[in-house]
Structure formats: structure tokens, C-alpha cells
Write a structure and sequence with these properties.
The chain is α/β, with parallel strands linked by helices. The chain is built from 11 helices and 27 strands. The strands form 5 sheets. A 9-stranded mixed beta sheet has the order 2-1-11-10-12-13-14-15-16. A hairpin with a 6-residue loop joins strand 14 and strand 15. Helix 1 packs across helix 2 and helix 4 crosses helix 5. The longest helix is centred in the middle third of the chain and has 15 residues. About 45% of the residues are buried.
Length: about 475
């Protein structure tokens, strides 16, 4: 997928552990794995933001081995469930993850090992040869549903990002977003295309070591979700001396317009760029961006379509809405639209279900200048710190503790309604453990009874009055 050799001894990755690798050596490791004559199959990559982890991902792409990117820290029960669902022939996992029965080690690089399944079931061999990467749908509840992405999807989006961000080999992006998250993955893909040096960090902005790494490695760009930028304001980011940092990008949910404006003004005053982006995992993942020159003028907008893509608004009958400021569903078209979904191993054999058209599920309109604005969602999803959470799924999880509950929310806040005060701590602990989100992502509201409609369904609209 990548022409790594053209960049020779240019450094491809540097991690906050102090290790690094050139483009030439990265390709050599990919070649070593390719020389193992692997059967065509599926690879689970248990991901961390480390050099050894990302080498496995790149090697899989270079050897046309379909890879599922997963969180290396997820609960073992979820991993075993996914293995039982998708029957991967190979696992790329760190020493921190215990080995699994029926898999044997065939290659090792640093603290990561490539395992191969001892017994292969021929009934599961069929995989679409176009399939390159499978990602979870930004979800956090261990659902087996995966987004199927082809090499064409990944390359189309990476090339588009290179174009609108004007990337080249001088870039040194700091990747602190998880690589199994589509936003993080896209940073890797787009910068490998141009021979940039990608800085990998497992640290968070709350840790002094993060800022030391950013400063010492002269990072030129930084990416974050809404929560990231809200936190940076509390840390008085605008007072920091960051002469090498030239670009700040934001995606993963809607950022408050006032904060967008503040960062836009900061960037303008300090010869930097602040770029708001919109996307979904299903689009590999970028679909729109707000040019940095417009962040002050249009801080509520997701911007314009990325190069090579188009956006339009459709009504409930599927007809295009041309009127200005009239709401409808946002539809995206482009070569980066995923092949479709998978929920079982057999689904990996499917072809292109979407044919380049993505119904985003977001309600939007556009202004007279052709800039788009998200105004709501068709379904009950919210994004919390970049993670797309299905309120219905979370509610079902809470019902394993109590049937008297309901969930509503907005971006970066989920409100859980309970009727029993004594269950508050148990529910918070359960949700935090399940989603790997801090308990502050959830607010528990105690009410006398859960409101229902005459149909017997929860009256969610009546609960939104509790969200300020």
C-alpha cells in the first residue's frame, strides 16, 4: 500500500519510549513477515501507540493481509468473544496480553509477537481480496460490528488529507489518539504517504512527559477530540511557547463554537492553523473540513467536502434539498466510503455494499456559501471524547443491574436516569469499566419513575429537560 523504500533512511516513527525506525527498515520488517508465506487470512492487531504495535499494522497492509485494529487493553472476555466471532488466523499482540490456546508464535519484534492459528477451518477462508482494514465503529461496548475498509478507501482518504492539509516530508505529527481509532489511523496513513516522521505517544495531555516529548521532538502538528481542546483551555494552552507546532486539528465530535473561535484566533495571532474536521469511521474517516481561514467566521460549521468527495442534504424521500438552511440527512459520496459492515466472519467475503455513498445519519443544512452545519442525529448515538456511544446499547447494559433506567445524552455527556440512589456507584463503575471512559463522562440523575409513552416506550424527549 505504501511505497516506503522511496524515503530510505528517513525516520518513519519515533516513540516516547525512545525507539525509532526508518522507512527502509520498516519495509524490511514487512518483507520478513511476508517471507513467512502466510496463508491468506485475517489478522487481529492488538494496538497501542508504540513502535512495535504500529510495525505490525504497516506490515499487514504491505503484505495485503486484512487487519482488524483493536484496543490492546480491552477486557479479555471481549477479545475472546471477537476471536470466536471472526476466527482470525493471526494475532499481533504485546507481551502484556497472555497467549491464547490454539495459536503458536511464528515471528517476534520487540515486545510484540505474531501468532498463527494451529488449525485452520477451510469453511472460513473466504475473504474479499479488496479488504484491508476492519475497525470498530468508534464504539466502546465490545460490539462485534466492524467497518470494512478497502485499500482504495484508505488511499483515497489519505491522499485527500495530504492535499487539504498540505502535508509533506517535513511534518512531525504527534499521535496521541489511539491507532485503533479511525482518526488516529488516518494520521498514520496520510503521513506515511509523504515520508513524514510520526511521533507516537502513549501519554496524555495531563502528563508533563507528554509536553516534554512534544517539545523535544519538535512536533509540528497535534490532533485532538473536543474534550482535548476543552482541557487545553483549562491548562492555559494559549500561554505556552510552542514555536515548532504549526497545525492543530480537531475531529471526533462537535466542539463548542466559542472554543473553535478561541483556537482560531489563537492560531491566527501565532502563525498557526486550527482546522476543524468532520468524519465517520465509515468514510475512512474524513468527509469535510473547515479551512483555517474560516474558523473565526464560521465556528459552528463542519466546513466543505474534502477533495474528491461531495456532500448533499436529502429529505425523507431521498430527494436532494437545494434550499439554504433547510435541514435533512447529510449524504456523502466518495471513493473513501467503506465497503460495508461485518458482524460475522462470513461477512468478510462481502463485496461493496455502499458503492461510494454514505448515509451519515446526521441532520444538517448548508449556508449560502456552501458550508455545512450539523444540527442533530437521526439515531440515538452521541460522541464522548471521540467515542461514538449507542445510548440504547448502554441502556441494555445498565438493565443487567436494574430494569428501571434510561439514557439520553449529547456530545461529551451521557445522562443515566435511575430510580434507586443506592445503585449510582455500581452503575457508574460498570459503565466506566465497560467503555474505558472516565466516570465523568456519565451523569446519574435520580428520578421517582422512568416516564413512558402510551406505546410503552420510554419518553426520552421528556428527559432532555434535565440536560443543561
Amino acid at each position: 500500500m505504501f511505497n516506503l523504500e522511496q524515503y530510505g533512511q528517513q525516520i518513519a516513527f519515533i516513540s516516547d519510549r525512545g525507539d525509532q525506525i526508518s522507512y527502509h527498515d520498516l519495509q524490511q520488517i514487512a518483507n520478513q513477515i511476508g517471507d513467512l508465506s502466510l496463508r491468506h487470512g485475517l489478522l487481529f492487531c492488538l494496538s497501542q501507540n508504540t513502535l512495535t504495535s504500529v510495525v505490525g499494522y504497516v506490515a499487514a497492509l504491505q503484505n495485503h493481509l486484512p487487519v482488524v485494529l483493536l484496543d490492546a487493553s480491552q477486557e479479555r472476555t471481549i477479545l475472546l468473544y471477537l476471536i470466536d466471532t471472526y476466527h482470525p488466523e493471526y494475532l499481533w499482540l504485546p507481551d502484556t496480553v497472555a497467549s491464547l490456546d490454539d495459536y503458536s508464535a511464528i515471528f517476534r519484534f520487540g515486545d510484540y509477537t505474531l501468532l498463527q492459528k494451529n488449525t485452520i477451518s477451510h469453511s472460513f477462508e473466504s475473504i474479499n481480496p479488496q479488504l484491508a482494514v476492519c475497525l470498530t465503529t468508534s464504539g466502546t461496548t465490545g460490539s462485534p460490528k466492524l467497518v470494512r475498509l478497502s485499500q482504495q478507501n484508505l488511499l483515497a482518504n489519505a491522499q485527500s488529507i495530504v492535499e487539504y492539509l498540505h502535508l509533506d516530508a517535513t511534518e512531525r505529527p504527534l499521535l496521541t489518539l489511539p491507532m485503533y481509532y479511525s482518526y488516529g489511523m488516518s494520521i498514520i496513513n496520510s503521513h506515511l504517504l509523504v515520508g513524514a516522521t510520526i511521533l507516537l505517544s502513549c501519554q496524555t495531555i495531563h502528563q508533563p512527559s507528554f509536553w516534554s516529548f512534544l517539545q523535544n521532538q519538535k512536533a509540528t502538528s497535534f490532533a485532538g477530540v473536543p474534550f482535548t481542546y476543552e482541557t487545553l483551555l483549562k491548562y492555559r494552552f494559549f500561554r505556552m511557547s510552542l514555536p515548532h507546532l504549526k497545525t492543530l486539528t480537531q475531529a471526533g465530535g462537535k466542539l463548542n463554537a466559542d472554543i473553535v473561535r478561541q483556537f482560531g484566533e489563537y492560531a491566527q495571532d501565532n502563525d498557526k492553523r486550527f482546522i476543524v474536521m468532520y468524519g465517520q469511521t465509515e468514510a475512512s474517516p474524513r468527509m469535510a473540513y473547515l479551512p483555517y481561514s474560516m474558523t473565526i467566521q464560521k465556528p459552528s460549521s463542519i466546513g466543505i467536502p474534502i477533495p474528491g468527495g461531495t456532500l448533499e442534504i436529502q429529505d425523507e424521500s431521498g430527494h436532494t434539498i437545494h434550499d439554504i438552511l433547510k435541514d435533512g440527512e447529510l449524504i456523502y459520496k466518495g471513493d473513501n466510503v467503506c465497503l460495508g459492515y461485518a458482524q460475522t466472519r462470513l461477512d468478510l467475503a462481502k463485496g461493496d455494499d455502499n458503492h461510494g455513498v454514505l448515509h451519515t445519519g446526521d441532520i444538517a443544512h448548508k449556508d449560502a456559501d456552501g458550508y455545512f452545519y450539523i444540527t442533530g442525529r437521526l439515531k440515538r448515538f452521541v460522541k464522548v471524547w471521540g467515542n461514538r456511544c449507542n445510548l440504547d446499547t448502554l441502556e441494555q447494559q445498565i438493565k443487567t443491574i436494574t430494569p428501571h433506567c434510561a439514557c439520553v445524552g449529547r456530545d461529551d455527556l451521557i445522562v443515566v436516569f435511575l430510580t434507586e440512589t443506592s445503585l449510582q456507584s455500581q452503575v457508574l463503575d460498570h459503565l466506566s469499566r465497560l467503555t474505558h471512559l472516565h466516570p465523568s463522562a456519565f451523569h446519574v440523575q435520580i428520578i421517582r419513575e422512568i416516564p413512558y409513552l402510551m406505546s410503552g416506550k420510554v419518553n426520552y424527549s421528556s428527559l432532555y429537560k434535565y440536560i443543561s
